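[Q] Does anyone have a clean structure-token version of this?
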Amino acid sequence: MSEQVYPSMSVANPHPPLLDGIQRIATIIAFIGLAMTVISVFGLLQNGSYLWLSLFCMAFGVGLYSWRQYHDTHPGIKNDGIWFGNLTSRGFWAWMAGILITFFYVCLYWYPQWLGFSAEGTNTGVVGFFDPLSIALKGKPASQWFVYGTLYTLAILCFGFKFILKYRHNRYQVIRTLSVIFFQLCIAFLLPELLERMNQPSMDLKNMWPLNYYFFFDWNLDKLLNGGNLGIFMLVWGIALIVLISPLLTYFYGKRWYCSWVCGCGGLAETAGDPFRHLSDKSLKAWKIERWLIHGVLVFAVVMTAVVLYTYFTGNSQVLFINSYSVREWYGFLIGATFSGVIGVGFYPLMGSRVWCRFGCPMAAILGLQQRFFSRFRITTNGGQCISCGNCSTYCEMGIDVRSYAQKGQNIVRASCVGCGICAAVCPRGVLRLENGSADINMRTEALKAVHIKAS
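[A] Here you go.
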């Protein structure tokens, strides 16, 4: 087999190899599966066999492509060519992907009839296309949310497999990815659908307040309180997550236990969003916007929950000048739909994979405050080994300038850090290390572990 020679002396090859034959075939298979789902919008292919074929083609195509790309690579993280790829460098295809994903989310939240959903009649379009799977799982026709949940889970499964192949030489990344796949497939998707089939209260047991902003809404509380022993268990479990389980786990392991190991939003960002992690803004301006925005959303969520509970217990929807029903509607529109869904996922190809987690998620804000001041988790640095290559900062999806900490030998204890460990994985010198320890928990963010030599 002859070697292709690239006439460039650049260390970062500006002419990365194109797809080989197997990758082209895999891409075609995946697009055929996706095209079948898209075509169903027009009322075509409304047969259960086409649904299974579509899902199989998408999964097989992505899996084959991923295997071909990474199966024979040497140990180490390969991010070759991402700054030259049209899709991964805000080129034409990145904008097209962002627009199409955003349009899908707009239809999902506000115009489900465009997807074929019918609340009273028979589903058509893409929602009707997923009816056979929905009936098989929960004995009911599909809704737009079932379509979304299926595609969401499929994306984490397929791109999770790709992620594992890419980072297979890093044990932490493999276990972490298997964890998010398990929680999304079993806890977030299958379990609620099967419970609904048995006419039992259904809930994503890992989705807690304030990320699950409607947990304390009257209709949800009534559903759980009237749901027998299982409903009471879910109510107690949800409250225990907030006041006991989450703070305890965050104290020992930082916010990574949730944001990088359990959360579905983080799971999609880590798997399907992995090719876009380098697009996160590392500027000081972005950091300032991040702090004001994410804590503003948290305050909004707390105020909304307080007035909603006040209305539930008193029956009075007016709290001073605030109407509880208006507040919940605006929160659901601005935060629950527009920010977390439309912007949070649609802007992957333009702003990186953690837009929602970084700028809007109130759950991340709470965990971040706990991590910053009351957690044993930190990323330690060995400044003497740092060569200032910048890989750590480049691939930090939360926009943290990791290199500046490494150069000073300073522990990284940031509220925004989700503990994904990619900075440590891509470091060629082993400078960074994820640790849990309480030796300097009260002063660790102040002391610079750097050696300063006075001039003679």
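[Q] Thanks! Anything notable?
[A] The first strand starts at residue 318 and ends at 319.
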